[in-house]
Specification:
single chain, 4-stranded antiparallel sheet, 4 strands, Dabb
């Protein structure tokens, strides 16, 4: 299995409603992309995020599912929305779960 973790930093003018929509769209990827075991996204609620205000975790069944996930049309559409609403930066970590 693969664990994919992403932190998101948005421009100050990005609204909570826009981020809520981003969370919804990210989580809906589980309905359309094969190999996703679990997907969660949410708002950071602490002061430890160093400007990153939203997080995502995706558990995928295999490296092949991970390799399909990133470049997929559905994932790219969500990324386009994130940029549209003011995505400034991301930080991602991916690791194998044995």
């Amino acid at each position: 299995m693969i664990e994919h973790i992403v932190l998101f930093k948005f421009k100050d003018e990005t609204t909570k409603e826009q981020k809520d929509e981003a969370i919804k769209r990210l989580c809906q990827l589980a309905d359309v992309l094969p190999g996703i075991i679990d997907i969660k996204a949410g708002h950071n609620f602490t002061d430890r995020g160093k400007g990153y205000t939203m997080g995502l975790t995706v558990r995928l069944e295999s490296k092949e599912a991970f390799d399909h996930y990133g470049p997929s049309e559905e994932h790219q559409a969500v990324l386009a929305y994130l940029h549209e609403i003011g995505l400034e930066d991301t930080l991602a970590v991916d690791f194998v779960i044995e």
